[in-house]
Amino acid sequence: MFTLSEENYLKAIYHLESGSKKGISTNAIAKSLETKASSVTDMIKKLSEKEVVLYIKYQGVTLTEFGRKTAANIVRKHRLWEVFLVEKLNFSWDEVHDVAEQLEHIKSPKLINQLDALLGFPTHDPHGDPIPDKEGNVNTIDKILLSTLHKDESGFCVGVNDSSSEFLRFLDKKKITLGKKITVLEKEDFDDSLSIEIDGEKLSISKKIANNLYIKK
Amino acid sequence: MFTLSEENYLKAIYHLESGSKKGISTNAIAKSLETKASSVTDMIKKLSEKEVVLYIKYQGVTLTEFGRKTAANIVRKHRLWEVFLVEKLNFSWDEVHDVAEQLEHIKSPKLINQLDALLGFPTHDPHGDPIPDKEGNVNTIDKILLSTLHKDESGFCVGVNDSSSEFLRFLDKKKITLGKKITVLEKEDFDDSLSIEIDGEKLSISKKIANNLYIKK
DNA sequence: TATTATTTTTAGACTTGTCTAAAAATTAAT
DNA sequence: ATTAATTTTTAGACAAGTCTAAAAATAATA
């Protein structure tokens, strides 16, 4: 069994690993958890003894298979709770993160299995992120950033890169929600802004926005 | 804001206070939390500084109004979660306690308000215990123990005194559930056992059982 | 009321998780 | 390939919450 702190470290390493092939640096973990490098070193030693990470001094860490599954299970719980909050308790997608951050540490396999069933075995959370299955496997789809679409191309909005409540509320205001079809009408060269069509309406989108919206063609 | 440990102490004191007029002793708290008296003294000092308990050395503690409300809120959360587990996630009443014990510490007023609404604003948990309202008020009904009923009297099963899973599973086996009508057909003098009628069936009930079932006439 | 028994508190220690400051190792740059 | 900059680790300290053992206060009893 893992402490709350250990679980948070595991989750952080898990997220940092997706995208980088090499070991995760002490500093990267410290930054992600808003703590000090020395604290990270201490905790890494403990996690290493518990066989969830592989640790070589000065070389960073990687999750073991056991560690990866453990972390995926925490992420699974986090995302299932997010779905629950939105679907059953009328939370909006920008309100769920902090509460799910607490709920993900509740220990009860039955609770999660039943919650999964209650929600109809969802595959993605409210931000479009995939929900790992019981074995810790993740079904990644080939989503791309809106900013990579060319003129006259279109696709469906399937996720966000930035899930800060500021960004999510901005999307709400612009009526941009997951599942909607977006067509690129124009790409401005000088500021990389986009003119898009969504719901039959024309909309102007800045580069920053386009860099944080995932599309599936 | 209170730590997990502080919340557990508050809850313990809250439960111990209902029933005894005087201050709650260090030993009583230690026993209830399965910890040592010295640990209790330490924590009591902290709670006293936080103004949730009134503490006079060697005289035990009492909750302040603020402390009472804080504790009632934790109990409220615990019992609402129990209802959720039974009503929405198909837990049986003997499985909910440990999970609710974890869930009661989740901090999010919106979560609890929405959960309350989802459940249809329940007034009692699966064991018949009343759910405190948002202000910490509890609606106590005049329930009595089954063992206090006389021959030929009857009433409705409204709660349990012992909520151990052993007792609850025993009641399940005997098909004794909350809401059912029970009539005392006979009281045996030599062992205080009861012969009762429930669901049109005759049943023999030991003194121990009768001492742990609440009835409302 | 004196004495014994019990309860409660204090004192000091330990664990977990964190921190700062300094030392050691690695990486980057001249 | 040295030197400089950065990263990482170590050493030592601190707060929270717990414990044991001993001291102090209260309660019970003869």
The helix count of chain A comes to 8
Instruction: Bin the strand percentage of chain A.
Output: 15-25%
- State mean pLDDT of chain A (0 to 100 scale): 96
SSE ordering of chain A: HHHEEHHHEEHEEEHE
- Biggest sheet details of chain A: 6 strands, antiparallel
- Determine the most extensive contact between two protein chains: A-B, 18 and 18 residues
What spatial form of chain A do the alpha-carbon principal axes imply? globular
Regions with little confidence, pLDDT below 50 for 5+ residues of chain A: none
Structural class of chain A: alpha+beta
Q: How is the quaternary structure best described?
A: homodimer
End-to-end separation of chain A: 42 Å
Report the helical percentage of chain A: 40-55%
- Side by side, the strands of the main sheet of chain A go 3-8-4-5-6-7
Number of strands of chain A: 8
Radius of gyration of chain A (CA) equals: 19 Å
Give me some keywords for this one.
two-stranded antiparallel ribbon, 17% strand, alpha+beta, globular, 41% helix, homodimer, DNA-binding, 8 strands, 217 residues, 6-stranded antiparallel sheet
